[in-house]
Write a structure and sequence with these properties.
about 260 residues; mainly beta
Length: about 260
């Protein structure tokens, strides 16, 4: 494995190709037809400036982490053929910020704490199922993305965008003493355990939940709020409350 850093890559047909366990950190890629192609797995792309390219980063590898990158004025900032993790990215004035084409693969794309501004499309998932081919679905999870413009999201029939927000829960007893190891459950409006997950408070009585407010499939919105939050602990009375995240980006509950 190797690392490229503090380099400028400009005016190429293909700027750089990353293989398994390569790192690309703190570089500038501009005015390329394809700035970067990621073919390998366990690859890190971090703190780069990706600007004025026809394609910024084309991901064909597995378990690719793209963190703290700035994407400006690209036709397609990121093209995701496979699953990937995008954290704290800044997408500005791109035609397609995140472009997800139709391929013969099932993908999970996780986008967290990122910013979208002045793009023509924030997420464009053009996944279809050509006749005779297996059905490959794409799940795109957007977590804590407060700047997303929902009219700039396109999802075809086989792609789904899930919108998640953080919900902070504080659990105390009648004397306001924090309750460690309390079990917290979050149920959506359909009565299903959200994320099929139970949460447990820490020594301060605190736990952070991840709530799936809505999802978008085939350009149709499906809402899963309001939620029911339940807390229980051995030798204590059960408690619960409701939480509505409609048009909200964060929730806090004291139980």
């Amino acid at each position: 494995n190797w690392t490229i850093s503090r380099s400028t890559i400009s005016n190429n047909t293909i700027g750089v190709v990353l293989k398994d366990e390569n790192n690309f950190i703190n570089n500038s890629l501009d005015h390329n037809f394809l700035a970067m192609r990621v073919d390998g797995s366990l690859t890190k792309v971090q703190d780069n400036n990706v600007s004025f390219n026809t394609e910024g980063i084309n991901v064909s590898g597995i378990v690719v982490n793209v963190d703290y990158n700035y994407f400006l004025n690209n036709t397609k900032a990121i093209v995701a053929f496979f699953g990937m993790n995008i954290t704290s990215a800044n997408f500005v004035n791109n035609t397609y910020a995140l472009f997800v084409p139709a391929t013969e693969s099932t993908r999970d794309i996780l986008v967290t704490n990122s910013t979208f501004s002045k793009n023509q499309w924030d997420v464009y998932a053009n996944t279809t199922n050509p006749t005779g081919l297996p059905i490959y679905r794409v799940n795109i999870n957007l977590t804590n993305i407060t700047s997303i413009t929902y009219s700039k999201i396109h999802t075809a029939r086989l792609s789904t965008v899930y919108i998640f927000w953080h919900v902070d829960v504080n659990v105390t007893d009648q004397n306001a003493t924090p309750l460690n190891a309390s079990e917290v459950k979050l149920y959506n409006s359909l009565g299903n355990l959200d994320g099929n997950k139970n949460y447990t408070t820490d020594a301060t009585g605190f736990v952070r939940l991840l709530a799936n407010e809505k999802y978008i499939n085939n350009d149709v919105f499906y809402y899963l709020t309001p939620f029911k939050v339940e807390v229980s602990k051995k030798n204590y009375s059960y408690n619960s409350t409701s939480l509505n995240l409609l048009n909200q980006t964060y929730g806090i509950i004291n139980l």
